[in-house]
Amino acid sequence: MKILYSAIDQAVPGTKGGSVHVAAVAEGLAALGHEVTALITPGPGQPRPSPVRWVAMPPPFGSTHLRMARAGGIAQLARAIRPDAIVERYHNFGGEAIRAAREANAIAVLEVNAPVVDYAGSSKARLDRALLFEPMRRWREQLCALADVIVTPNAAILPPGIARERIYALEWGADTDRFHPGVEGQAPYVRLGVTTVAIFAGAFRSWHGAIHLVEAIKILRARGEKDVGAVLVGDGAELPRVRQAAAGIDTIVFTGALPHDRMPAALAGADIGVAPFDIAAHAPLSLGFYWSPLKIFEYMAAGLPVVAPAVDRIPSLVENGREGILYDGAQTEALADALVTLKHVELRRRLGAAARARAVRDYSWAAHCKALETAILQAQRHRQDTRG
Fold first, then answer.
1. Each residue of 325-344: pLDDT tens digit?
2. Structural domain containing residue 312
3. Of the N and C termini of the chain, which has fewer Cβ atoms inside 10 Å?
4. Residue 328: exposed, middle, or buried by beta-carbon count in 10 A (0-12, 13-18, 19+)?
5. 3-state per-residue secondary structure call for 175-214
6. 119 pLDDT band (50/70/90 cuts)?
7. Considering the entire predicted model, what is its pTM?
8. d(Cα 27, Cα 37) in Å, to the nearest integer?
9. Which of 80, 131, 88 is nearest to 110 (CA)?
10. Looking at residue 286, what DSSP letter applies?
11. In terms of Cα–Cα distance, which of 46, 45, 40, 47 is closest to 4?
């Protein structure tokens, strides 16, 4: 198939989860033999060598609110390529590619990993209602109506009334060939003499909960447990606050943002992967834990036992006592207790091996792209059948 993939507000290559996702899906579909043209914002450096045709088409002035200004250029490109499928990464102000699918007679695929519906108390919803006809809600619902296939980790964030056969619940994933135990290469940090290293990798936003890992290390030190350290990878608005909380603790290391190609070695140098999500800190998560967390899947692919709160969908992603330790986020010392439990090397090895096996089976990008391919082919057959 010829596939046009529009993710114009995502930088490739890049360090953010969205960038990793876009690169992995484009490369994964190309690896299945499809001719993939991907529209992106150019990131620093060059994408990894692959058959993907990368086309620089950032939104004007880098603003996601202006994505629709690229609609004409995307429609013109679609007429030249004549794709069989057009995939668009959803955004509230998007639609620049989905609308082109009808003219191109292509299967329209909408990737949704952020809420289409508004959460209770949303300021955006209040503004929309003030405009009388709720134009933003109507536009979002129209985008979903135009899609032949909607790919999302959680259907609860979609508007009601969408036919179930158009919705494909797919988790995002990890590159299980690049992330694995024993990756060669120097970890981009120093272990500082501790016996157990817990790693956090991701955006420093309040709901990602990085500060909870720092607080857990402080609790352990107060107990006299000084052989558990932490490495925190990434940046974001919460980083200054987390650094301040960690001031004076020599067993906590901050690396800053790392290129994604250094992450396999970063994880391989650690012993535990921590995803201390704090869903109460992010109002949209009142709709449910709609994320498909890359960090968890990459930890698992690297053979790390996962430590995370037992909230919402997380227990379906990581089985407590089999692939990691899930804790009660409402208990102040529960994360610290989980880290102490995983000081035992044999337990870490057993949980890490199970995590790796599940990542390969359920959470590889190869599996995700194969399922996406199947969804597109099914939509093509359905269209052919209905047209006779």
1. 999 999 999 999 999 999 99
2. 196-362
3. C
4. middle
5. CCCCCCCCCCCCCCCCCCCCCEEEEEECCCCHHHCHHHHH
6. confident
7. 0.93
8. 10
9. 88
10. G
11. 40
